[in-house]
Amino acid sequence: MLNDITKIDTNFISGNSTPWIPFAPVNDKIMLKYLKIDPARGEVTMLMKVPAGEGAHKHRHTGIVTVYTIAGSWQYVGHNWVSKAGDYIFETAGSTHSFTTLGEKETVAYVMVQGELQFVDGDDKVVHFEDWRTALTRYKTYCQANRIPEINLTTYEI
Questions:
Q1: pLDDT mean for each 10 residues of the chain (158 residues)
Q2: Which of 96, 66, 95 has its CA nearest to residue 83?
Q3: Residue 101: inside a domain
Q4: Model-level pTM?
Q5: Residue 10: its pLDDT value, please?
Q6: How much is the pLDDT for 23?
Q7: How many CA atoms within 13 Å lie on the side-chain side of 119?
Q8: How far is CA 138 from CA 12, 96, 110, 124, in A?
Q9: Other C-beta atoms within 10 Å of 116: how many?
Q10: What's the confidence (pLDDT) of residue 1?
């Protein structure tokens, strides 16, 4: 018998229940607000806030990434498009790039990452990686250090 779709749990997270956390060691000026960390799918869903003129070094994705730009503007270095508020980006698994924000305002985006972000050097050797485990560790460590109550971002329990 198929599962009763009306029994599927949902997850509500108040916008104020998770803190903005520096994306150290990648760039501590980039702030992340984790919304969901899914170990089963290797997926992290978050808001990302990036000051004007900042970005992330060259990295490769092992899974897909989707980005919806809420405010500001940004682009992949060397690409001929600029993402502005309301734009949607789909990044294929295996893509490699770096990004930077444009203009004088901060950029805010909704981001969903599957798999790893592998930060690479000039020879394309992995020097650092990010995944759901590093996201969860960053979240828990930040909450504990700042005495912020943790909510469980890995389940669908309310």
A1: 57 86 93 95 96 91 96 92 96 91 95 94 91 97 96 76
A2: 66
A3: yes
A4: 0.89
A5: 73
A6: 94
A7: 13
A8: 21, 24, 18, 25
A9: 19
A10: 45
Q: Domain of residue 114: give its range.
A: 25-145
- DSSP β-ladder status, 88-91 and 107-114: unpaired
CB 24 within 8 A of CB 49: no
Burial class (CB in 10 A: 0-12, 13-18, 19+), 131: buried
Sign of CA dihedral 43, 151, 109, 31: negative
Question: Quick one: tokens of 158?
Answer: 């309310």
Buried b (16+ CB within 10 A) or exposed e, 80-104: eeebeeeeebebeeeeeeebebbee
**CATH assignment at residue 100:** 2.60.120.10
Q: Return d(Cα 27, Cα 30) in angstroms, integer.
A: 6
Q: Is residue 103 part of a domain?
A: yes
pLDDT at 142: 97
E strand or H helix that includes residue 153: none
